[in-house]
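Changelog excerpt

This revision adds worked examples to the README so contributors can see how folded entries look when concatenated. The first example is reproduced verbatim below.
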Amino acid sequence: MYHAIAFAVMIGFTVAANLLLKMGAMVPAAERAILGVWDWRTLLGFFFFGSAALIYSGVLEWLPLNVAQSIAASQFVAVILASAFFLAEPIPMGRLAGIVLIIGGIIVVSFSEKARTPANQSLAGTSSAEPG
C-alpha cells in the first residue's frame, strides 16, 4: 500500500508542477515578480518537481528502474487529463488513443513485475543463483 501511495503522491506532485509552470508561463513578463523572469507559480512548480524527484528516488529503492519508469509514465496521462480539466486544453482523438496505449503498457509492465520472483532478481537483471 505504501508503494501505491508513494507513486500517487509523486504523480500528483508532477501534475501540480506542470500545471504551475504552465500558469506561471502564461503571466505576462512585465508582471512576473521574481527578477521579471519567474512568477511565484513557476517557483512553486520547481518545488513540486523537486519533491516528486525525492519521492521517486525512494521508490527506486524497492522497484527496478525499468518498472518504476513504466509506472511513472502514468504522469503523462495525468498531466493531459489535468490540463484538460484545469486549463481547458482539448484532448483530440489521437491523443486519447495515445492515453489508452500508455495505460495498456503500464498494465502490462506492472503485471510482468508481479510475475517475477525474488530468487531471479538482481541489479544486473541476471539470475542471482550460482550455477551448480
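The second example, added in the same revision:
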Amino acid sequence: MSKKNNEVNANDSILSRLAELEAQQEELKALRAQAKNMVRLGVTKNGHLAIYGVRKFPITFKTAELPKVSEMFTSGKIAEFVAANVQNLAPAVTAETKTKA
C-alpha cells in the first residue's frame, strides 16, 4: 500500500509542478507581448541609436543626427509642423482600424 501512496504522491507532485510551469509560461508570454509593444532604446551593431516599438523596423539615428532631431522635438517644431499639416498627413493606422477596413 505504501508503494502505491508514494506513486500517487509523486504523480500529484509532478502534475502540480507541471501546472505551475504552465502558468509561468503563460505569464512569460504575456510579459513578452507587453515588452514587444513598449517603445525602447538600444544601440545597433554600427553604434547608432535605435528606437524600437514604433513601427515594424527600428528607427535609427547616427550620433551626429541626434542633436538636430532632439532640438526639433524640444523646440516644438515637430508639433507645430504636425498641427499646421494635419489635413495632409495620413491618419494613424492601429490594429483597430486595420480590422474595420
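Reviewer comment on example two: The mean pLDDT is 86. The beta strands are 40-43, 49-52, 59-61.
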